[in-house]
């Protein structure tokens, strides 16, 4: 699995922002109100980020234990480290990638709607605040998704036998 590139997330956010702005203008021209995020969406975005962090705790603990074991002097007795199921770590990494991409989609959409709200001749203050909270929740989703995805990555081995085996 390849890591999500930041440039991909930016491209997705810009595309969603353009779409959000265009849809907002279209709705206003048709006499409809500006789109506003419902409260359950504003609560769900940060909850998704928190759930992802909770799901990643075993992977993060394992990485901390490995780092601690590698930092010990060579002569000391090392305590055995309980390994994380690799399929679990892969599922968390895939979920983190999905959360990062969806966070950038929501960020772009809310950003486009916020620009439309702020440039509208009649500013709906409630819509601006809701859109701002949507941006904050989607940024949290994107950042947590990228960080957890990178935390679930297996570091490359530096031994010659492993590189020779993987090259064959």
Assign the structural class, choosing from mainly alpha, mainly beta, alpha/beta, alpha+beta, or little secondary structure.
Answer: mainly alpha
Write down the Rg.
Answer: 22 Å
Helical coverage, percent range: over 70%
The shape is: elongated
**Unreliable stretches:** 158-168
Query: How confident overall, as mean pLDDT?
Result: 87
The tally of helices reads: 5
Strand content: under 5%
Detailed description of the structure:
The chain has 168 residues and is an all-alpha fold. It has one domain (6-69, 81-154). It has helices at residues 6-29, 39-71, 86-119, 125-151, 160-167. α2 packs across α3, α2 packs parallel to α4 (125-151) and α3 packs antiparallel against α4. The two termini are 20 Å apart.
